[in-house]
């Protein structure tokens, strides 16, 4: 049977300032900071996860805030836009909210849908779209009530240096269905109901440069560990070079770079972010894997304290 991913598991990006990152994604966008940990490969850097009330697969955008990071350049080999999905009827609320906090945006039409496109404090390109699919978020914070809250990912726009090759990977390897073409974009749909709509810029793009304001990788969903091992073998048989399985504590991960030079990850849905914190405690304490616990004092001393706070405009 052909393997198919349900859609996006998470998206990970680079930013500069950790507190500004928290203020934008938790304070302005109303997402929940569900996990405060470190980059396991660079423990002097936070790894912050934002999502719905529990950071369910398909809702979590994650960040490496690095104060000395260079400014990145969005281009080929990257996610161009990260798409968030909001409830039908909520787009007007979000227009008012972006205006209230002086975030400039553009309204664009694509495949019969209206999108609000804007950028975060580092220039990371984001967009909001209304859709029926996916479960409603149960999280409300600041000025964002649960009935208007971001449900999770709608999908993404991919920028490729070899778009035809990237589209073949999406269709033949990842199991997405090609469903349309419009305005220089080709649309694909995964089988899930969230994080499932992927648009690919059909023209080759100049290679981007990693740094603040760019996406590091896009991760796709695997059902469980068994499915994950099958994905690893599936990628290898396709002719790409998957890494070994890496324990990321809250999911297992395999990475590979597809032919259009976008870094893909395949991540398991379980165990999730409640593995080491209760629902009520999510995101409050710096969580470290056991091999870093002996160095907690040193690690914490090197990290700038951050606070999830209600923005002044919402008080």
TrEMBL record:
The keyword Ribosomal protein does not apply. Keywords: Dioxygenase, Oxidoreductase. The keyword Zinc does not apply. One of its GO terms (molecular function) is dioxygenase activity. Residues 7-131, 152-269 form the VOC domain. It holds the Pfam family Glyoxalase. PANTHER family: RING-CLEAVING DIOXYGENASE MHQE-RELATED (PTHR36110). This is Ring-cleaving dioxygenase. The lineage of its organism: Bacteria, Bacillati, Bacillota, Bacilli, Bacillales.
């Amino acid at each position: 049977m052909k393997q198919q991913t349900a859609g996006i598991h998470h998206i990970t990006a680079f930013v500069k300032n950790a507190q500004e990152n928290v203020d934008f994604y938790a304070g302005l966008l109303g997402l929940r900071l569900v996990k405060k940990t470190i980059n396991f490969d660079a423990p002097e850097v936070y790894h912050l996860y934002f999502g719905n009330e529990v950071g369910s697969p398909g809702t979590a955008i994650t960040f490496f805030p690095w104060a000395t990071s260079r400014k990145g350049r969005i281009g080929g080999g990257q996610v161009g836009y990260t798409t968030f999905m909001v409830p039908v009827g909520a787009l007007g609320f979000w227009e008012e909210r972006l205006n209230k906090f002086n975030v400039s945006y553009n309204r664009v039409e694509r495949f019969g849908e209206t999108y609000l496109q804007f950028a975060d404090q580092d220039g990371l390109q984001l967009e909001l779209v209304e859709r029926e699919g996916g479960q409603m978020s149960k999280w409300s914070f600041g000025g964002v009530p649960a009935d208007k809250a971001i449900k999770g990912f709608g999908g993404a726009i991919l920028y490729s240096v070899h778009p035809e090759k990237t589209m073949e990977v999406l269709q033949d390897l990842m199991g997405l269905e090609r469903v349309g073409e419009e305005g220089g974009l080709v649309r694909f749909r995964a089988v899930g109901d969230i994080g499932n709509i992927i648009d690919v810029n059909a023209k080759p793009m100049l290679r981007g440069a990693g740094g603040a304001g760019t996406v590091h990788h896009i991760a796709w969903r695997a059902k469980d560990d068994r499915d994950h091992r099958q994905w690893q073998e599936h990628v290898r048989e396709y002719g790409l070079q998957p890494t070994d399985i890496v324990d990321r504590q809250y999911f297992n991960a395999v990475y590979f770079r597809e032919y259009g030079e976008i870094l893909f990850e395949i991540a398991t849905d379980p165990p999730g972010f409640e593995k080491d914190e209760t629902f009520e405690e999510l995101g409050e304490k710096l969580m470290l894997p056991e091999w870093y616990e002996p160095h907690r004092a040193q690690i914490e001393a090197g990290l700038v304290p951050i606070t999830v706070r209600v923005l002044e405009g919402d008080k």
